[in-house]
Write a structure and sequence with these properties.
30% of the residues are buried. This protein is 23% helix and 36% strand. The longest helix has 10 residues. Strands 1, 2, 3, 4, 5, 6, 7 and 8 form an eight-stranded mixed beta sheet that branches. It has one domain. It is an alpha+beta fold.
Length: 152
């Protein structure tokens, strides 16, 4: 699953149903303590672990063993447009979600980067849900990287 079309096909499924949820939050940058935008990709249900591992590898994300490494923008980047963000795999292969958190947009555009974390387990309730702390501590099931953020 190395082609953008294969990644997008898995993300959206055969019937066009979305197999992943994408959510975001603002955390602290480890280097300077300022705001750092984060995005999370997680399967919408159980049974998506193998597909999410392949997606993470295709996107150039690495196992969490140290700081997240930059991911080449040629593989994937984030595009912020008005009230929407897109995880861009290619010009016609994108995963989109509404931008409803002004602080996320401010952090992402000010720094020009965001940290993308992809997990193999569902994340019920997103990054503010009750199970997020347990989800994010299962580092063996997570991959991450730093993505360029561009504005339209």
């Amino acid at each position: 699953m190395s082609q953008p079309s294969q990644v997008t096909a898995w993300l959206h499924g055969q019937a066009g149903e979305r197999r992943v949820e994408m959510s975001g939050w603002v955390g602290q940058h480890p280097g300077d303590g300022g705001d750092q935008a984060h995005l999370v990709l997680a399967p919408t249900g159980h049974g998506g672990a193998a597909g999410m591992r392949q997606v993470a590898e295709a996107l150039g994300l690495q196992q969490i063993t140290g700081p997240p490494a930059p991911v080449p923008a040629s593989l994937v980047h984030v595009l912020v447009e008005d009230d929407e963000l897109a995880l861009v795999l290619s010009e016609d292969q994108q995963l989109r979600r509404p931008l409803t958190e002004p602080e996320w947009t401010a952090a992402a555009t000010a720094r020009g980067t965001c940290v993308l974390t992809a997990g193999t387990d569902p994340l019920l309730g997103g990054p503010t849900g009750d199970d997020f702390d347990a989800w994010i501590r299962r580092t063996q099931r997570l991959r991450w990287g730093v993505l360029d953020v561009r504005t339209a």
